[in-house]
């Protein structure tokens, strides 16, 4: 049975910050951010958006009434969850009007959460071939103001429906996985910003890629030349470039250029949105799907990395997807509004992460689903 991605959609904030302006405000050479890190813009997430509303906004772009009836499992990958007990999937199911026979669960392992969902969905669909599974990776990447991680912030959500006979991409049953208990990036309970050992995390990212990519090639007998593209989790786009460079250094120059060109097409969206954490790898995939001339049966390699750390490499075979409608579905990205560094800092500080009761600035937020506030520790969501 062919199982994979039948629909895919993306949502982020209507606001962005220009990375050259951030560099100037932080007394850095803009080329460090633009070239050294490889980021042009970062999404600025309003205080009226959290991982649940970002997920609902992404999923609402792809689900229709038939999906609302047929979805029987919701897998919610996040590391910016809003509750230590209740799963984001329950809020999502309600906000989207998905039938109440569907079950759901939240999955956490840093940026790996959504890929863990893919594995669970594969097994679920093998047992129930008629099912449609909704998967969402939704996060806000938040480091400290003035920290070296600040340039790698971002946020948003990718939603997918997985099923048998998928229209976009069939996912391989084979995958290679590597886990090692390390402290490269983490967010202790009660912290609203991540702690990170930046250089160490970057080195480990490359090592995890090499281990899983080589193991996958051994397992499947595929070679680099069999892949139309290799796409990456992109905490910042230079990270993927460095891992790719290390993985294909023994290939011919012609082969390297082909894969670098495909990588360039896959990094376009991350470069103007920033790190999405769980959704990031799948944003690279969307970027490839809209920017590259792909043919049916082209093989795409995907590398997922979640700090702490778990890495996984797997592949997908392209089906006959509707490229034009995917392009149309992302047109709204061109309408985003630029904010100044001052305005970004105000929004950053207005996130009411430690408050019990609060009201957000939701009236200014054009998104369909919004967080209005919180009362008695209970979130109040709304719809425009
Ligand atoms: P930094 O230490 O300030 O940067 O922060 P740097 O000094 O290393 O410079 C970066 C690059 O810019 C260097 O290039 C410089 O040479 C270059 P490289 O040596 O790396 O090739 N540069 C310039 N280039 C052009 N013109 C110039 C110029 N000046 C310097 N004028 C760091 C960088 C990534 C450490 C920081 O941003 C950080 O800590 N980020 C967060 C951590 C992170 O994203 N790690 C990635 C791997 S871990 C991961 O992917 C998991 C994650 O998504 C979380 C999860 O799983 O949940 C993060």
UniProtKB/TrEMBL annotation:
Example GO BP: acetyl-CoA metabolic process
Keyword annotations from UniProtKB, A to Z: Transferase
Active-site annotation: 79 (proton donor/acceptor), 111 (acyl-thioester intermediate), 233 (proton donor/acceptor)
Keyword Transferase among UniProt keywords: yes
Binding sites annotated in the UniProt record for (3S)-3-hydroxy-3-methylglutaryl-CoA: 29, 143, 242, 275
Domain Hydroxymethylglutaryl-coenzyme A synthase N-terminal, first and last residues per copy: 2-164
SUPFAM superfamilies, sorted: Thiolase-like (SSF53901)
Domain Hydroxymethylglutaryl-coenzyme A synthase C-terminal positions: 263-346
NCBIfam families listed in its UniProt record: HMG-CoA-S_prok
Family: Belongs to the thiolase-like superfamily. HMG-CoA synthase family.
Protein name: Hydroxymethylglutaryl-CoA synthase
Organism: Pediococcus claussenii (strain ATCC BAA-344 / DSM 14800 / JCM 18046 / KCTC 3811 / LMG 21948 / P06)
